[in-house]
Each structure stands twice: as structure tokens, then as C-alpha cells.
Amino acid sequence: MDWRLHFKRTSLDRRFTALGFVQSSNNPKHDPVEVHLVKPSGQIIPLRNSDVVDVLWTIDGQYLIGQGSNTLRLWNTNGGLRVRQLPRMDRLDVIPNLVCVAVRDFTDSAGNETDVWTVYRLHIPSLRPAGQFKLPEEPTERQRFCR
Predict the structure, then answer these.
(1) Does residue 141 fall inside a structural domain?
(2) Number of domains in the chain
(3) Over the stretch 60-76, which tens digit does the pLDDT of each residue have?
(4) HSE-CB for 32 with a 13 A CA cutoff
(5) Which position among 30, 92, 93, 120 has the lowest Cβ density within 10 Å, counted as fewest Cβ atoms?
(6) What is d(CA 34, CA 52) in angstroms, rounded to the nearest whole number?
(7) Is the peptide bond before 136 cis (omega within 30 degrees of 0)?
(8) Is residue 143 part of a domain?
(9) What's the pLDDT band for 8 if we cut at 50, 70, 90?
(10) 54 lies in a domain?
(11) Domain around 16
């Protein structure tokens, strides 16, 4: 089984870089990912519990946010970790002091099919809930939807 670079994300202040490596396995449904943090000194820290789909940096570059299938991870630049369980996560966005998680609602409360998106807002760094709102349509891959 080989490891290859899956993603590289540099903080906005260009001081830190997150490298995600994926291991090719015999089970294509789940090729594990490991994320490593490269500090300004060149020190490389493997981040624990880092099997994520993607990562993004907070605006101030102090935290790295990881998107799993149902677990949001927040690492500080020393490798410390906080987690928050959600039913699932489809898209992430970040603004100062908040991370937003967009989740598609497949059915409404009456069981009818729908295409409405619920956005859960969480405080950074505590990951405590900060409210939620609805979007009328799917946010595109890089669309800013957090407010």
C-alpha cells in the first residue's frame, strides 16, 4: 500500500501548511488519510484523528478545521484537537470566530423530498453551537455561505 499527497493547504498568513496523505488500499471506499502540520520552523507534526475528507484554515491561521463524514475536527497549531459530532457534513466555510457546516436536508418534517440546505454555525475554538439558518440551494464547492 502506497501513500501519496492528497491535498496541501497553506494558512492565509502563509506560516503553516497542512499536508494530507492518502493511503491506497484494496478497499476504494475507504482509503485512509493522515494530515501533517508543517510549522514555520520546518517541524512536522502528525495530527491525531486526522482521517478527513478535506481541511481549511481559519482566517487568522490559528486553527485547522477538518471535515470528516460526521465529525468536525479543529486542531490548533500545536496539534491540540477538539471534535464535534454532526449527522453529516456536505460543505464547510469559515469566517472570523465561526465555522459553518452546510448539510442537505433530503426530506422535510412531513417526509416530502426537498433540496434545502441547513447551515450549522459553530464558535471557534469551542465548537459550541451559534445558531443555524437555511439556504435555498446547494452552495458551490468554493462558495462563501457562512454569515
Answers:
(1) no
(2) 1
(3) 999 999 999 889 999 99
(4) 6
(5) 30
(6) 8
(7) no
(8) no
(9) very high
(10) yes
(11) 3-135
Q: Return the CATH number at 25.
A: 2.130.10.10
Listing DSSP states for 48-114 in one string gives TT---SEEEE-TTSSEEEEE-SSEEEEEETTS-EEEEE-S--SEEEEETTEEEEEEEEEE-TTS-EE
Q: Residues 33-56: pLDDT tens digits?
A: 999 999 999 999 999 999 998 999
Contact 80, 73 (CB under 8 A): no
Q: What pLDDT does 136 receive?
A: 82
From residue 2, alpha-carbon distances to 26, 32, 65 in Å are: 11, 11, 25
Residue 82 lies in a domain: yes
Q: Which residues contact 100 (CB under 8 A, 6 or more apart)?
A: 92, 93, 94, 119, 120, 121, 122, 145, 146, 147
> CA dihedral in degrees (15, 102, 98, 10; nearest 10)?
0
Amino acid at position 89, single letter: M
